[in-house]
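Protocol step 4 of 6: record predicted structures for both targets in the notebook before any analysis. Target 1:
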Amino acid sequence: MNFNISGLDNTAVGYLSLLLNTSGYGNTANGSQSMNANSTGSENTATGYQALFANSDGGANTAIGYQALYSNVETQQNTAVGYQALYSNDGSYNTAVGFQALYSNSIGGSNNTAVGYQSLFSNTTGDNNTALGDYSNVSSGTLFNATAIGYSALANGNNKVVVGQNFNGMIIGGYANWSNLSDGRFKENIRENVPGLDFISRLRPVTYWINTDKLQRHITAEMPDSMAQRYLPDAEQQAKDREYSHTGFVAQEVEAVACQIGYAFDGVNAPKNSTDNYSIAYSQFVPSLVKAVQEQQTLIEAQRAEIEQLKKQAAENATLRTQLDKITAALQGAGIGVGN
């Protein structure tokens, strides 16, 4: 136990723990060199070898594990549980649970949550990111509001949620349909300007397979090679990719069609950064499909009315023809010649 501490309500257990504390209070350091540099930081808890080692002024931090929150100096309200979790941290309000979770988080990286082995390992200055699952991560250290859920899930855009690996054969679903906000109380400037047949008839439905190796290399282009390699498919997976057929559209083609007809279509998500990728929200095609059916039904009803009119005219013509045949027969019977 180290008795060379000042301040109130501090507990230090371990070689050089809380060695430099001056006015910090309410701290608990348990482990060799835990909170070694703390001076005025208060209400911190450090358990493990060199946990919160560099902390001097930061408060209300919790570090449990070997070198957890090791580099934290003055930021606050972080929670790190695991070997070197939040090791490089210089941000606040972060939560990291797992071996080297949020390991690279540095200046300003705040409000991030990482759960899993090396989850959010690449995040540096990004904010409000969430990763759940071993190796769940972001493709760039500066993203914000990015979420990766599942083993090796990799979010590659701001305000983007990625569920599962970018491998063919992944199934995402449950026992109820996904529900989107659709409440008339909060919708304004409602207009009936959705294109139907003009949009739908120009689309090109196709089948295809995804080159996941090429895709992953694009997504991980800004990551160190040693890290990027973890997200690349092996030869066996690449072979499976070529056998897995998808049905859909090419996003760039849909984007071009919408542009041609002046339709501000929200079903195509264009890349927001150099490692982002195009994506399509297929549910957004439903309004145009409904409009197309309505337009087709209008055409069908008009054609049906035209056909009925033609049938009526044909019936009238048949009656006139019968009457004409009777008159012709009567005239011929009376010896009166009738020309054709």
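Target 2:
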Amino acid sequence: MKVAVAVHGRFHGFELAAELYARHMLARLDTTYPRFACPARMKVRTLPALELLRRAWPRLHLPGNPDLFIAQRFAKSLAGHLPQADILVGWSGASLEAIRPAQERGMKVVLERGSTHMTHQTETLRQAQARFGVDWTATDPRLIERELAEYQQADLICTGSGHARRTFIEHGIEPAKVAVNPYGVDLTCFAPDDKPRLKRVLFAGQVGLRKGIPWLVEAFRKLPADWELHLAGPVEPGMDRVFARLDMSRVVLRGPLSRHDLAEEYRRAAIFCLPSIEEGFGMVILQAMASGCAVVASTATGGPDAGEDAEQLLLVPPADSPALGLALLRLAEDAALRERLGQAARARVAHGFSWVDYGQRAVALYQMLTNPKPVC
């Protein structure tokens, strides 16, 4: 079996391609990244002009964004240069024009969706922006139409969490068509050490409504005065209005961190929190767990897939500041619980959530897709 991977960017596509390559199953990796930024040795086809456009657009302060153009051009180019393969794995939004041509050549098409169903995601974010008075930045309707068409045409939709899968089923997609494959983590980069942890709650990701930041800042107020909340990542436009309505004392905006620096922050923080209201999985959960950090996550993430509540992490409902505050306070006041959860979290991800584990699950899904078992 040969599998082609086509991703307009990187996401977890490079890790998937690497696992397939190691098993001699990779037909080709298509990406917008330049060749020098791609994994060595494997067969790669690149469209770097599209990546340059994506990165240059905000720096040139151009209106709107180029997402639709990039998605269309990437998918059309892929359709015209399909490799010999049994399966095409494409990313949602940037695969539409290649699906039918691939299927006509006998390929099965797997659509990777890194978030919830597009309709669920759009409505969740619309409600959050209305609640906090942030200007509604709606997704281009043409991108939404593309994704909805891809959902119908693909042979299999692969999500990262049970929560994301349920949103597809709730919006009419057949359960058998939606699979779950939780992502992986680099266990060598993200690992604990013997240095003391600080009285710090860490968040990593885009600092905005989707990731649940207002609820986190509100919940953090329950913690003792000697604790700090560190928010690592780029700040979403419009959040200045939200911050103006919140108590931002003891909250530190760290900005984007390098992979190395983020790994060090996981090792220093006593608690990690991802309180997203909409999420496909949230790989930062696995990174924090691998680093031995006590984790609090919302049930709208891959937290329930990563571990059991009160066994490897604490789980709370999304958009629930009181519940989140109680979970954070529980950990802040109980060092022994933090230590137990951190150790259990590391053990959990070490046995089931490496990228090798992810690759094994992906291959099993592809094998079932190409060789379905007969119904008895």
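Step 5 preliminary note on target 2. Residues 293 and 342 are 5 Å apart (CA to CA). The longest helix spans residues 335-350.
Proceed to step 6 after PI sign-off.
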